[in-house]
Each structure stands twice: as structure tokens, then as C-alpha cells.
Design brief:
431 residues
């Protein structure tokens, strides 16, 4: 474990490499229905709206959702559970054959450690971690159809763990919850809280994952999760490609520490129109562009499952920015990001196998190049570059160029195929 700690400290002070051509080959096949899920705020909506949202999810060929469950709303008074809406959602997911991971977060009023004179009492951890753990066991017993339970959400940030992140306290909550869940369902998948970003803590120089590793949390056998949000698909600094660098390094070290499953339980971009709230204003077209490029990158990295945030836009109970992360609008209609994702998934097919990228001549240094093939042997090349250019593929004579963002398909044919490269994701498909 000491080697893991030294790496985490090193990882965040090492300089990232200069911007250069990026060639990626995935570590394993990707089956979209098992790999790509979405965050679905089903408890925010009516049963009819939930049905509509799940129908739209299934139309994409996807089957996994992550659902938020707040303890303070589930049990506003001790022992007085509000099960009706939750019962309906779990029954609907089971009936629709949609797989789910639920996360329980937020202290109930009677259990919070918040000082009595302060607001936001749900954002403080519970006084007794075993009391929270008993609720997780109760939910696990009541809802066997739920596929996985996640213990809290983003405890490295004050917004979910006031006054500041505390690895030891969260580690106790996690350990007690794992033991409680497995006492009633020994084989149930348990997921560590999704850490915001790469688990940085505002009040600490060390990462929460580093501290949890030192406390033995990886020995609990949970899925490890984090939320790699960034300003652009390639990173907060796309020239440095810091998402790719940090994601790859973090995943490598987690594997070396014995972690079997790594999930990104949130990622995505809002299509909000302002006033600016941390994320730049990119609009609906920018949201679609960013989601496709990030999906292409993450599919070729060492993640076992990823959950896009989110299936639907939200109403004014959410912040201005958080209202507009959806694939669907509030009426359940597809936004451009949904349409582009549907085109992307239709072009790739349900399963892709790792494959080398094609030989590319006149390739720009900022080219992103990801190789795949379909089970029938058809080649799929995902690519983009910041600056438009035309490249040559000397070994390909005939192919189909698919632009899922724009909705265009072109037949290309020539000796030494000439392919236009643009700043958003395109797919080249050939036999």
C-alpha cells in the first residue's frame, strides 16, 4: 500500500506531456448496454414521465441507470419511511428490465451531525455510521431487484460532507455499510461513493482515495468510483490532455492496488445558457459534441462502466446549470445530444473489439485516433483534431464517413483514401 500512496502524491505534481498526436487502443471489448449507463432522477418525476424516459433509454439499446435516493426524504422522521414513490420506481425498473445502481446520501434530520444552529443539515454526515448502514441493509432487503448499492456521493466535497471531507469518517461509514449490506445479501454489488473529480479534497493536499487506500478500504471488495468532470472532453487544459493523463494514471494505480472494478458514476456537460456557473456556456450543440468525444475516449480507457449525467433535464429545484445536463428535455423529448448519441450507437453497433488504428499520412499533431472493429471484422475508426485538415489512409480504398453530430454519411473512394478531419468526432467504417 505504501507504493500506492507515493504514486498518488506524485501524480498530482508531475507535469503532463506536451500536446501530441493521441493514438488509443482499448484494453478490452466494449458492449454498450453493459458499459454505458445514465444517471436517472426518476424520483423527481411522475410515473408516466419515468416510463417515457426509460423507453427513450431503451431505444438507445442501453440498460443501466444510476438513481439518487436521499435519506432525509426517505425517512424524514425516525422510523417513518416514505416508500411509495421508491416502491414504484423499483417496480418500474424491474418491469422494464432496466438494471440499476441506487446511491443513498444525505443525513436524515434525526441522524445528522450538523450543529443545531446551522442550515443544510442533510449535507453533514450522520452521527452514527452504523445507523446509516442499517438503512442500507433495510433497502437491500426490501429491493432485491436493485443490482447495486452505492454508499453516499462525493464525500470529498463539502457540498456532500460538511464541514469538509474526512477520509477516516467516510471509511467507517463505508465499512459499516458494506458489512450491513452483505449480512442480508452476500453477493450484492456494493459501490464506493463516487468521488468528485479524482477525489481531491479542498482542505487537503492528498487525495481521498489515497487516504482510503491507506485505511484498507480497497480490501472491502467494492467497486471504486469517481466523477471525472472537466471543462472539455480532453481535460480542463486540452493542450495538456489532463483528463486522459490523470484518468489513465489513476486507473493504473487502482488496478495495481487490487481494485477489480472501476466505474465513472458521473460525467457530462450541461447545455444551460447562463448565467455562467463554473462550466463554460456551450449550448445544446456543444453538449452533443463534448459527450461524443468524451464517450469515445472513455470507451478506450480502463473503465468497467460509466454513467452519463443525465437522462433528463430537471426542473427549478435544481441549480441553473444542473437543470440542463439531460439527454432529454423536461417533456421527455430528445435533445441534440440524444440524437447524436443514437447515431453514434447505430453506426458502431452493439459491440466493438479493440483494433489498431489505420495508417494515417499527413496526420496533425493534435489528432485523436481510436481503433475498433466490429465482430464481423468491419473496421471503425474514431477521430478528430482541433484544427481541420485532410489526411490520407494509404491502405484503405473505400469507406463510409459518418458524422453523428451533423447527421451526415458520405461514401469515400480512392487509392490512398483522403479523409477530412474536423474538430468534432467522426467515424470511418470500412471492410
Amino acid at each position: 500500500m505504501r507504493a500506492l500512496l507515493s504514486w498518488f502524491v506524485f501524480c498530482w505534481v508531475v507535469s503532463v506531456p506536451a500536446y501530441a498526436q493521441t493514438v488509443m487502443v482499448a484494453p478490452r471489448p466494449v458492449v454498450w448496454k453493459d458499459f454505458l449507463g445514465v444517471n436517472a432522477h426518476l424520483l423527481w418525476f411522475s410515473p408516466a414521465q419515468d416510463v417515457r424516459q426509460l423507453q427513450m433509454l431503451k431505444a438507445l439499446g442501453l440498460q443501466w441507470v444510476r438513481v439518487d435516493l436521499h435519506w432525509d426524504r426517505l425517512e424524514p422522521s425516525q422510523g417513518q419511511y416514505q416508500y411509495q414513490a421508491l416502491d414504484g420506481v423499483v417496480h418500474l425498473l424491474d418491469a422494464q428490465q432496466v438494471k440499476s445502481v441506487f446511491y443513498l446520501v444525505g443525513s436524515a434530520p434525526f441522524a445528522t451531525s450538523a450543529p443545531p444552529f446551522l442550515p443544510h443539515k442533510d449535507q453533514y454526515p450522520p452521527r452514527d455510521s452504523k445507523q446509516f448502514a442499517r438503512r442500507m441493509a433495510l433497502l437491500t432487503s426490501r429491493y432485491p431487484a436493485v443490482n447495486a448499492w452505492q454508499v453516499w456521493n462525493e464525500p470529498n466535497l463539502p457540498a456532500f460532507w460538511r464541514p469538509w471531507g474526512d477520509a477516516r469518517a467516510y471509511g467507517e461509514l463505508l465499512q459499516d455499510s458494506v458489512q450491513a449490506i452483505r449480512s442480508v445479501a452476500p453477493d450484492k454489488t456494493v459501490v464506493m461513493a463516487g468521488m468528485a473529480y479524482y477525489s481531491q479534497m479542498p482542505m487537503h493536499k492528498r487525495l481521498m482515495l489515497e487516504q482510503l487506500g491507506a485505511l484498507g478500504a480497497f480490501g472491502l471488495g467494492t467497486v471504486v468510483a469517481y466523477h471525472p468532470y472537466s471543462q472539455t472532453p480532453e481535460g480542463d487544459d486540452p493542450v495538456a490532455q489532463d483528463f486522459i493523463v490523470r484518468g489513465n494514471l489513476l486507473n493504473q494505480r487502482l488496478r495495481a492496488a487490487g481494485v477489480k472494478k472501476i466505474w465513472a458514476t458521473e460525467w457530462g456537460w450541461s447545455s444551460y445558457t447562463g448565467e455562467r456557473e463554473e462550466q463554460p456556456i456551450i449550448g445544446r450543440a456543444g453538449q452533443a459534441d463534448d459527450v461524443l468525444r468524451r464517450l469515445a475516449l472513455m470507451s478506450a480507457m480502463d473503465y468497467d462502466r460509466i454513467f452519463l449525467f443525465a437522462l433528463s433535464d430537471l426542473d427549478d429545484r435544481a441549480t441553473l446549470r444542473d437543470r440542463s445536463y439531460g439527454l432529454l428535455d423536461l417533456r421527455g423529448n430528445p435533445k441534440p445530444v440524444y440524437v447524436a448519441l443514437a447515431r453514434f450507437l447505430a453506426a458502431t453497433g452493439p459491440m466493438l473489439l479493440p483494433a489498431p488504428v489505420p495508417d494515417v499520412r499527413q496526420a496533425p499533431t493534435d489528432l485523436y485516433s481510436i481503433g475498433w472493429k466490429k465482430p464481423d471484422g468491419t473496421h471503425v475508426w474514431m477521430f478528430w483534431a482541433a484544427n481541420p485538415v485532410t489526411v490520407t489512409l494509404p491502405t484503405v480504398r473505400q469507406a463510409v464517413l459518418i458524422d453523428p453530430l451533423m447527421g451526415t454519411t458520405r461514401q469515400l473512394q480512392s487509392a490512398g483514401l483522403r479523409v477530412p478531419v474536423v474538430p468534432h468526432l467522426q467515424l470511418l467504417v470500412w471492410h
